[in-house]
Amino acid sequence: MSPLRGILVGLGARARTWARVIDADPDVALVAACDPDPAAQKAFAETHPALLVGSSISAVIDTPADFVLLATPPGGRAAQIEACCKAGLPVLAEKPLADDVALAHTYVELAEAAGILLIVGLNFRYLAVTQE
Q1: What is the DSSP letter of 57?
Q2: Would you say the pTM of this structure is higher than 0.85?
Q3: How far from chain centre, in Å, is Cα 63?
């Protein structure tokens, strides 16, 4: 069976943790990544030279993939979630999903209308920095 192919959006600290986890799992593989920061793009490309690395989700969303992992801050996710819905790609988003409940509800409605899964990861909730 082929590994699940993922697009990583955001290349900060959480994304680097996700990349290490995915790189160690034979059932999952990154196929593209993006971040608006050129330094983050360059650093990620150096450790993942075979991947397409772009400045935004629009630069990588057409890469054949099975899911998108949003390791981005909750502010500004609307365009990212809309792009995933348009591409028909399930989303795993870091928590919090949004800055307020109304916006989170909008994202859920967008995903339901597109027929995609929208999952919020809570795997970092016990880290001291998260609890603080």
Answers
A1: H
A2: yes
A3: 14
DSSP 2: P
Domain that holds residue 105: 4-131
What is the total count of domains within the chain? Answer: 1
pLDDT in tens, 83-93: 999 999 999 99
Cα separation, 8 vs 6, in Å, equals: 6
pLDDT digits over 4-31, tens only? 999 999 999 989 999 999 999 999 999 9
CATH number of the domain that 59 lies in?
A: 3.40.50.720
In this prediction, residues 106-132 reach a mean pLDDT of 83
The secondary structure of residue 96, as a DSSP letter, is P
